[in-house]
Amino acid sequence: MSNFKLIFIGIFAVAAIFGVLVFSGIITIGASTSTQTDVSGTVVIWGTFDSQAMTGFVQDFNTNNAKIHITYQQKDAATFDQTLVEAIASGTPPDLVLLPDSLVWRFSDKLTHIPFASLPAQTFQDTFIGAANVFSVSDGSLAVPWASDPLIMFYNRDLLESVGIAQVPATWKPFADSIPLLTKKKSDLTLIQMGAALGTYKNILHAKDIISLLFMQSGNQFVSLSAANQPTVHFGAIASANENAAAQSAINFYTGFASPLSQAYTWNAGEPTDRNEFTQSLLAYYFGTASEVPLIRAQNPNLNFAIALPPQQASGTPMTTGHIYGFAIPKSAPNQLLSFTATTLLSNSASESALPSKLGTTLSLMPVRRDILAEKPVSDPYLGLLYQATLVQKTWLDPNPAGSDQVFATLISDLGSAFLPTDQALSKAAAQITALSAKI
């Protein structure tokens, strides 16, 4: 073999041994210890989170790690995938990419697959939450999990208490029953106060997450990765009868909240965005993510709100959805061993335990390690609920986030206008999602 191949194999052999030792706990890396390796250098990370919001975490990491320092560069979320593709094509990628689950599939052939020798499947499962499996492929993992942003339900205490609702609904039936109490409208059906933002798409910030949650709560996997490492859609023409029944039930429930003929009518496509209405105390329930807690507080400091898990099915285990982020190594990253060593440091217990304090006032991203989440804070009710939401978070494989947005917007439009019956609209959407499966 050439010298290059020998060096390349040697690098991965060292990385494999080091990774197993770190994740198994034989090598512990904490706030006051060194990396216990000779690997050192500066690691450049690209991501879409606000650079100011990441400052505290970056500074804390660099203070606690003598040999490896990180620098974070914020990229525009709207053009992030294209920017990364161009950097990889030109041979100038970053050392690490802070990759959301929604871009995992698109970049799976451009990332270094971390082999099981470096991060064993059992270690991965024992260390990280179940939602992290979105990074798993047949030959290893595409990224090392770092943080989670689960979907939660915000609710306006004042609006609920004004109609005698003392406890936030825990399941969908009492939730739906509460909507008429919380909705105020004129004789011409013009809405002046809304119970919940459901049933439309473009003016609901997390419509796709809400729809996917309803599907999964009904027993439908939505979109998953097959054994052949291909996205599989669980509704439409190729899905089973049970999957389609669950899908139709979920989507009809969702669209009912925007139907003027429904008792649960409380929202329509002419309303402003849901978060805006919530912060103005015109919306009782808002489905958002953990990272929005500081943002909503800042937009209306006087808003009397609280958070809860989204309503659940009457039977079944609690769940929510959301997004998870991991550190991925581009195949053409200049120093693969340095990049991999950095991922082990970024995802160890010391770094993960710092997330709530270093990001809590800016991003409110949650740790994804089970050992951290096992110790729920008792003095912070918000953080305890967010830890719970993170543990029960489920994910699905989005083959193309921008493309699937358009698909589901069209699906809701087709159903709202009665352009297609439910089964045909779902089959159309399934075919379009499958067509999006080509990698970037």
The portion of residues assigned to helices is 40-55%
SSE-based structural type: alpha+beta
Quaternary structure: single chain
Question: What is the number of beta strands?
Answer: 14
Largest sheet: 10 strands, mixed
Mean pLDDT: 90
User: Which consecutive residue ranges, at least 5 long each, have pLDDT under 50?
Assistant: 20-36
**What is the 3D shape?**
globular
Number of domains: 2
CATH superfamily of the largest domain: Periplasmic binding protein-like II
Rg is: 23 Å
Question: Helical segment tally?
Answer: 18
Based on the coordinates given, report the CATH architecture of the largest domain: 3-Layer(aba) Sandwich
Distance between the termini: 32 Å
CATH topology of the largest domain: D-Maltodextrin-Binding Protein, domain 2
> How much beta, percentage-wise?
15-25%
Name of the top-level CATH class of the largest domain? Alpha Beta
Q: What report would you give on this structure?
A:
This protein has helices at about 5-25, 50-65, 80-90, 105, 120-125, 155-160, 170-180, 205-215, 240-255, 275-280, 295-300, 335-345, 350-355, 355-360, 370-375, 380-390, 400-415, 420-435; strands at about 40-45, 70-75, 95-100, 135, 140, 145-155, 185, 190-195, 225, 230-235, 285-290, 305-310, 320-330, 365. The chain is of the alpha+beta class and about 450 residues long. The protein has 2 domains: about 5-150 and about 320-390, 3-Layer(aba) Sandwich (D-Maltodextrin-Binding Protein, domain 2); about 150-320 and about 400-435, 3-Layer(aba) Sandwich (D-Maltodextrin-Binding Protein, domain 2). Helix 2 links the parallel strand 1 and strand 2 (about 70-75). Helix 17 packs antiparallel against helix 18. The longest helix has 22 residues, at about 5-25. The protein is globular. It starts with a helix and ends in a 5-residue tail after the last helix. The model is unreliable at about 20-35 (pLDDT under 50).
